[in-house]
Amino acid sequence: MPNTTSSTTSSTTSNTTRLSTLVTLVTVTLWAGGLTATRAADTATDSSGLAKNTYPKFRGDLQNTGRGGGSGATGEKKWEFATGFEIYSSPALGADGTVYIVSNDHRLYALDGQTGAKKWDFASDTLGGSYASPGQAPAIGADGTVYIGDPGGYDDNNRGQIIALDGKTGKKKWEFKAKAPVYTSPTLANNGMVYFGSNDAFLYAVDSSTGKQKWKLESGGQIHSSPAVGTDGTVYFGSDDKNLYAVNGTTGKIQWQFATNSYVHASPTVGTDGTVYVCSAGSLTTGPGNFYALDGATGKQKWVAEEVGGEGSPALAKDGTLFVQDGGGHIFALDGKTGVKKWDVVHSGSRTSPAIGSDGTVYVLGGNTLYALDPSDGSAKWDIQLGKFGVSSPAIGADGTIYFGSGDQKVYAVK
User: Fold this and answer.
1) Is the dihedral of CA 254, 234, 236, 191 positive or negative?
2) What's the rounded Cα separation, in Å, for the pair 403 and 116?
3) Torsion sign across C-alpha atoms 93, 95, 98, 104
4) Could you read off the pLDDT of 347-379 as tens digits, one per residue?
């Protein structure tokens, strides 16, 4: 039975809010006079709380559409950076173009987006991605703070946690400990909360500035699905209990839940009309996964595309077309209104999630190859082969550069 637990609210909240508003007004006034703006004003300039870049988190935006702001890549390798181990995680981009990505050498790297030069790295004994739950990425705040999930280990002092780092220096700001591994990507919303799930079955909401818990909601299974946030603040996520949940982002109260046919490891995507799209993973016991379209307000099913599921998350184009990879080598394009299949192409299988350039080109990592696909028919515009199988999902820079990690222990930039 799902359960929500809220933290104690301080009696000084209203005073703090009034003081925060005053600080923001004073800061903006000073900035207009030529002085440096502080964090309060910086945050106010971005409605989502995320860094102003095309891909500041896993799947790019709060709705997890996978859309980037750049285009024009031709498949030319711009740079590569070697880490000490395989990379199962995905990159996120800071406001200045810095590339943040985790390697399985237990380090988070900050790399110059233009040259690939290392700016800094942060080491933790248990930091790293998982092939069983691929795609994890940091989230970058408007003030440059980097939020990342740490799977943790068998030490009772760190079973799993979220870490906040200074984006310029890599210095730790705070950490919040869960009771089991954290394989999801954090989502930073416009209400100052960071949402993430854990293998302890809880979805957590913590204060982005302090790391203090606001609330937590218990699902019926481990959570590998990274949350999406609707325009009304509703938080959507999946669980190993086979359900997709819609939760009030402020209170943590369940608004509805929808039972799929299998585990939900993929992250949901929210359309402009509020429709929520999600894939179930499928397994030997449950059979193939499915692709569902649900009413975001009620949870009522609009359509289902059977046997088009997987662990990869869908990407949603501006024209409503959905692109998803099933893990078995198939990349599908579906009509977002009806679920009717537009095309189905077969490449090397992977669990990665596609990204969409501003010109509509679909970028997806399949096996050891990055493909650039024509959205109209799935034909390859170009491809580039890597040294080893990869499960990192691409991120797209403002200039159209494609960033991703690989099993060959390298981070790539392709233009």
Assistant:
1) negative
2) 10
3) negative
4) 876 778 999 999 999 999 988 899 999 999 999
Distance separating alpha carbons of residues 35 and 227, to the nearest angstrom: 37
Instruction: Tell me the three state secondary structure of residue 103.
Output: strand
* Residue 155 domain flag: no
Question: Number of folded domains in the chain?
Answer: 1
Q: Is the dihedral of CA 278, 282, 286, 288 positive or negative?
A: positive
How many whole angstroms separate alpha carbon 258 and alpha carbon 338?
A: 19
Place of tokens 């980097």: 146
Q: Does the residue 400 lie in any domain?
A: yes
Q: Could you tell me if residue 194 is inside a domain?
A: no
CATH number, domain with residue 239 = 2.130.10.10
Range of the domain at 362: 55-125+225-414
Is the residue at 66 inside a domain?
yes
As a whole number of angstroms, the distance between CA 59 and CA 52 comes to 15
Classify the C-alpha dihedral 259-204-352-377 as positive or negative: positive
Return the SS3 of 172: strand
pLDDT tens per residue, range 219-270: 999 999 999 999 999 999 999 999 999 999 999 999 999 999 999 999 999 9
